[in-house]
Every structure is written in structure tokens, then in C-alpha cells.
């Protein structure tokens, strides 16, 4: 069994990157927080394995995009950050089953 890894990249400040020069954008992308989530590709063959990986990716998104301390209500910018990180991670894995689960969760929450 091969261990694969995906990293969740948070691309914050997209407007700033769009106006920045190429070198500035590259530096900002390299400084972007990320977490590597390792998984076994065989686990994606089952619904339970897919759901377990999705939960781990969502937890990693929460770590990459933390809510300010002392705040109970999650700010919209934090929710957007988490969504973008989760979108990027699901996209990197290239699993139809994971993509379908992600799409169903986005339909329920949005």
C-alpha cells in the first residue's frame, strides 16, 4: 500500500496577489500556511474511508484557518478560508468519491 500525501494550501489575500508582481506572489504562496494530511489511497475505495479522510481534511482546514481566540462565532473570512483550503485539498486528491462527498456537504451548508 502506497502512502500518499496532500497538503492544504491556504491562498489568502487573492486580491493582493493579483496586483503583486510575480516575485511577490511567489513569495506569498511559499509563505502560505499548510498542513500535510497523509492517507492511504485504498481507503478511498470505501464510503467510510472517504468520510474519515474528509473529516481529517476539514480538521486540517480548521487548523490552517483558526478562528481568533476568545471568539465563539466563526467569522465569515475564516469560513471562507477553510472552504478554500478544503476545496484545494479535495481537488488535489483526484477522487470522484471524495469530490462527490465534498459537493454534497457544500450543497447542505450553502
Give a written overview of the molecule:
With 110 residues, the chain is an alpha+beta fold. It has one domain (3-109). 59% of the residues lie in helices and 13% in strands. It is built from five helices and two strands, in the order βααβααα. It has helices at residues 14-19, 22-30, 47-64, 76-93, 96-109, and strands spanning 3-9, 34-40. A two-stranded antiparallel ribbon has the order 1-2. α3 (47-64) crosses α4 (76-93) and α3 (47-64) crosses α5 (96-109). It is globular.
List keywords for this structure.
disordered N terminus; 2 strands; 13% strand
Question: Any idea how many domains?
Answer: 1
What general form does the structure show?
globular
Helical content class: 55-70%
Mean pLDDT across all residues, rounded?
78
Alpha-beta classification: alpha+beta
**SSE run:** EHHEHHH
C-alpha Rg (nearest Å):
15 Å
Query: What percentage of amino acids are in beta strands?
Result: 5-15%
Number of helices: 5
State the end-to-end CA separation. Answer: 36 Å
**Low-pLDDT sequence parts:** 1-28
| Topology, number of strands | 2
List the strand order in the largest sheet: 1-2
Query: How would a crystallographer describe the biggest sheet?
Result: 2 strands, antiparallel
